[in-house]
TrEMBL record:
GO terms for molecular function: carbohydrate derivative binding; glutamine-fructose-6-phosphate transaminase (isomerizing) activity. GO terms for cellular component: cytosol. The lineage of its organism: Bacteria, Pseudomonadati, Pseudomonadota, Gammaproteobacteria, Enterobacterales. Residues 286-426, 458-599 form the SIS domain. This is Glutamine--fructose-6-phosphate aminotransferase [isomerizing]. It comes from Candidatus Erwinia haradaeae.
Length: 609
């Protein structure tokens, strides 16, 4: 979490830093700050609590002159979201912005206090500023000093350091948190995400783990973890600036929900031909590896974890390959057994989630057949560090609550199930069946989106509710979990999901006339079982909201609302049924007046564990 940006130019840089921070705000929005220095070494710093907008407003009344600068938008880890804790942090001539956590900061703090340094913030970052200042007294260039300081730090960092005595350069270091250099004309930048640099650069260099870089107006030096000078590939950006606009929509989340049919259509056009799946990213070596797969291990967090959970049903019922799925923060800290010929799959929108990345790194020492990531961000750490990668190509997702990245992960997972089934059994019809049935998915989701008025009306019934239960069976159970997560994170309503058969083992005690229960009930082989669960809730006066299709035989009454969705093949139902839940959460959040694109306490890219 936290977004950082630095620039060395031959023009005043404050506006570019502020614009960049707006694009990085999805990474954290508790407070924001910037610091610029001019060629005479005069420093101006401005920090504000809250969103970047507060900093921009304050900047309008402040003179911020300087051609070199650093800026930061914060997701608080150590210390409250107060101005004193906002970055950049300063130690005399040294200023620092930092994304990550310095785990041994208390030890370092105690040591630095003994050297006479005093601390003004509660952050872990301030120790970096003082440590660089202290080490600098032993001599050397800023680059050399930073290289000497890094071995003292335990934890994760993407950081940029400015020395006001040498305002012609910035030094950056990466370990665990992403950093990308943007090359300009006579100016250079360094940033957490290239999205923040589209107005000034299209040429990007991704730093690797352990890299330290020095940028000046006309020069870039990168050293690797052994302090050898290295060349890293330069990549031309493929993204258009308009892809980060809200367009005709009121919120990014709304836009991203409505983009789902188009995103899925694009995936199908580029990946399916004549009933077969084509992944141009996978070469013959990759196909040989996939053919050997006998077990799938999926590791992910949050919404991505839910898409993995849905896919488990597909792996086992369609491809007959055993699959287990685990939350990354659990997987990375336990000893687990690797089954023979297991493929390790990570799922992530951002490709930078710290726990998922750590799980991938751990898996490499464990004897898996190989690793494959399904990700939405090209060149992200997860993509670069996996043996194989499939891109969801959903376009930039800005709303903190994942929507289109979830459905596109599901589509890609289903295509992967089809592909591996085809590779393992050339006469199997599974691949063809999946590819053919997917063709109706975009139009089916279009039909669901037409229910927006009904769902916005329904949302009124949830606006005064403090608790909501979601239930489903089979593939709809993870959809219930994802629906509950959406409602929680953007409307701040407590929501819980259960496999419907579990109600009687405890949660039924919660049901009374004030408890809404959202039930995912497509017409499938589990419907009769689900109907019995529904009767158990009805008998205890629960308020029933049944998402179903016309063939399921439910009727509206005082206690029951029926939300009719198009009938769709069983395997596609989870991808369709999440869409009305996304919309419902969106409308509940609108009524509650939350900042739904940037819900409190959250950030889009979770780069700390
Ligand atoms: C919820 C949400 C989060 C993310 C989770 C993992 O709407 O977006 O739960 O799914 O933080 O992020 P990625 O997918 O980037 O690894």
């Amino acid at each position: 979490m936290c977004g950082i940006i630095g620039a060395v130019a031959q023009r005043d840089i404050a506006d570019i830093l502020l614009k960049g921070l707006c694009c990085l705000e999805y990474r954290g929005y508790d407070s924001a700050g910037l610091l610029v220095v001019n060629s005479q070494g005069q420093v101006s710093r401005l920090r504000r609590v809250g969103k970047v907008r507060n900093l921009i407003n304050a900047a309008e009344d402040t003179i911020l002159l300087g051609e070199t600068g650093i800026a930061h938008t914060r997701w608080a880890t150590h210390g409250q979201p107060e101005e004193i804790n906002a970055h950049p942090h300063i130690s005399t001539n040294i200023s620092v912005v930092h994304n990550g956590i310095i785990e041994n900061y208390e030890l370092l703090r105690a040591h630095l206090k003994k050297q006479g340094y005093s601390f003004v913030s509660e952050t872990d970052t301030e120790v970096i500023a003082h440590l660089v200042n202290w080490e600098q007294k032993k001599g050397g260039t800023l680059l050399e000093v930073v290289q000497r300081v890094l071995p003292f730090l335990r934890g994760t960092y993407g950081m940029v350091i400015l020395d006001s005595y040498f305002p012609d350069r910035l030094v950056a270091a990466r370990s665990g948190s992403p950093l990308v250099i943007g090359r300009g004309i006579g100016e250079n930048f360094i940033v957490s995400d290239p999205i923040a640099l589209f107005s000034v650069s299209r040429c990007f260099i991704y730093l690797e783990e352990g890299d330290v870089a020095q940028i000046s107006c006309n020069n870039i030096i990168i050293t690797d973890q052994h302090q050898n000078i290295v060349q890293r590939n330069e990549i031309e950006s493929y993204l258009e600036p308009y892809s980060v606009d809200k367009g005709i929509y009121n919120h990014y989340m709304q836009k991203e929900i409505y983009e789902q049919p188009a995103v899925i259509t694009n995936t199908l056009i580029s990946r399916c031909k004549n009933g077969c799946v084509y992944f141009e990213e996978l070469d013959d070596y990759a196909n040989d590896l996939l053919e050997k797969v006998q077990h799938i291990k999926i590791v992910a967090c949050g919404t991505s974890y839910h898409s993995g959970m849905v896919s488990r049903y597909w792996w086992e019922s369609l491809a007959h390959i055993s699959c287990d799925i685990e939350i990354a923060s659990e997987f990375r800290y336990r000893k687990s057994v690797v089954l023979e010929n297991s493929l390790f799959i990570t799922l992530s929108q951002s490709g930078e989630t710290a726990d998922t990345l750590a799980a991938l790194r751990l898996s490499k020492k464990m004897g898996y057949l190989g690793s494959l990531s399904i990700c939405n961000v090209l060149f992200s750490s997860l993509v670069r560090e996996s043996d194989l990668a499939l891109m969801t190509n959903a376009g930039v997702e800005i709303g903190v609550a994942s929507t289109k990245s979830f459905t596109s992960q599901l589509v890609l997972l289903l295509l992967l199930v089809a592909k591996i089934s085809g590779l393992k059994n050339k006469t199997s019809l599974v691949e063809k069946k999946i590819v053919n049935s997917l063709q109706e998915l975009p139009s089916c989701i279009e039909k669901v989106l037409l229910q927006n008025k009904l769902l916005s009306k329904l949302a009124e019934e949830f606006s005064d509710k403090n608790h909501v239960l979601f239930i489903g069976r089979g593939e709809q159970y993870p959809i219930a979990m994802e629906g509950a997560l959406k409602l929680k994170e953007i409307s701040y309503t407590h929501a819980e999901a259960y496999a419907a058969g579990e109600l009687k083992h405890g949660p039924l005690a919660l049901i009374d006339g004030n408890m809404p229960v959202i039930i995912l009930a497509p017409n499938n082989t589990l419907l009769e079982k689900l109907k019995s669960n529904i009767e158990e809730i009805r008998a205890r006066d629960g308020l029933l909201y049944v998402f179903t299709d016309s063939e399921s035989g439910f009727m509206n009454n005082d206690q029951t609302r029926i939300i009719l969705l198009p009938h769709i093949e069983k395997i596609l139902a989870p991808i369709v049924y999440i869409v009305p839940l996304q919309l419902l959460s969106y409308y509940v959040a609108i009524i509650k007046g939350t900042d739904l694109d940037k819900p409190r306490n959250l950030a889009k890219s979770v780069t700390v564990e």
